[in-house]
Amino acid sequence: MNIADSTILITGGGSGIGRALAEAFHRAGSTVIIAGRRRELLDEVVAANPGMAAETLNVDNADAVQSFAADLLRKYPTVNAVMHNAGIMREEDLRAGDPATAEATVETNLLGPIRLNSALLPHLLQQPAATVLTVTSGLAFVPLSLTPTYCATKAAMHSYSQSLRYQLQGTRVQVIEIVPPYVQTELMGDRQKTDPNAMPLDEYISETFGILQKEPDAAEVLVERVKSRRFAEARGEYDSFYQKMNEETIKSRKARQP
User: Fold this and answer.
1) CATH classification at residue 90
2) How far is CA 5 from the centre of its chain?
C-alpha cells in the first residue's frame, strides 16, 4: 500500500483508532475521507485537519450503505482504499436471554463492513492499485468472556479477511488486516481511555503506521503487544492464556467497582 498517495475511506473515523489512523494517513499525504454516524465528531476531526473530508454513514442500514457507496464514488472517483474500522464493543450477560446487544454488534461489526466492501469492490478492482484494510482485534484470537459477540465478530472478520485476500489473488487489490491490542480509546467508555493496562493510543498508532511504511505488502499488521495473543494457540498456550486473561480481567473489574 502506498500510504502517501492513496485516497482512503476510513469508517469510524470520528474517534479512537479510526481518527488517529485517519490523521496519520492525512499527514503522510493521502487524501482521507472519514465516515461515521455522528456528524459533530466528524466535523471536529475535519476542522482539526484541513483538507480532510467527512461523510455520514450508518453501517447498520443495508440500503444506506449502498447509497453511501454510490454517492462516495461520485464525489471521490479516485478512492482506491477503504479501512473498515467502525465497530461497537459491549458487555453481555448471555444468561439473560436478550439478543439485542448481540444483534446490534453483528450488524455493525460484521455485516456493515461486508456490505460496504461488496459495494466498493467493483470500483476498487478497476483501480491501478487498491487496498482493503480490515481492523480486527487481538480478541479475535483469544476472546474476552465479558464481550462474547464483539470477539466473535472480530474472529469472523479475521476469517473474512483471509478469504478475501485469497479470492483477490492475481488482482491489484491488496488486503491488510490490522490487529490492535487493548488500546487507550473510548471504545468501552472513559475508563478505557485512561486504563494503564491499555496501550497508549499514540504509541499504538506510531508502531502501526511504522509497520505500514516499512512493510507495504504485509498481510497482517501486528504490534509487539498483540503478538502473544495472536500466536497463543500456535505456541500451544491457548488454554492457559485464555484462563489467565479472563481471570485477571474479572479481578480488575471488581477492584474498580465502588
Assistant:
1) 3.40.50.720
2) 21
249 in a structural domain: no
Give me the sheet containing 130-135, strands edge to edge: 53-56, 31-36, 7-11, 81-84, 130-135, 173-179, 220-222
What is the tens place of the pLDDT at every residue in 1-20?
Answer: 899 999 999 999 999 999 99
> Please, are residues 139 and 149 in contact by the beta-carbon 8 Å criterion?
no
- Which residue is it, cell 448471555? 94
Are 148 and 106 a contacting pair, CB within 8 Å?
Answer: no
pLDDT digits (tens, 9 = 90+) for 133-179: 999 999 999 999 999 999 999 999 999 999 999 999 999 999 999 99
> What does the alpha-carbon distance between residue 162 and residue 25 come to, in Å, rounded to a whole number?
24
Catalytic residue annotation: 150
**pTM for this structure?**
0.93
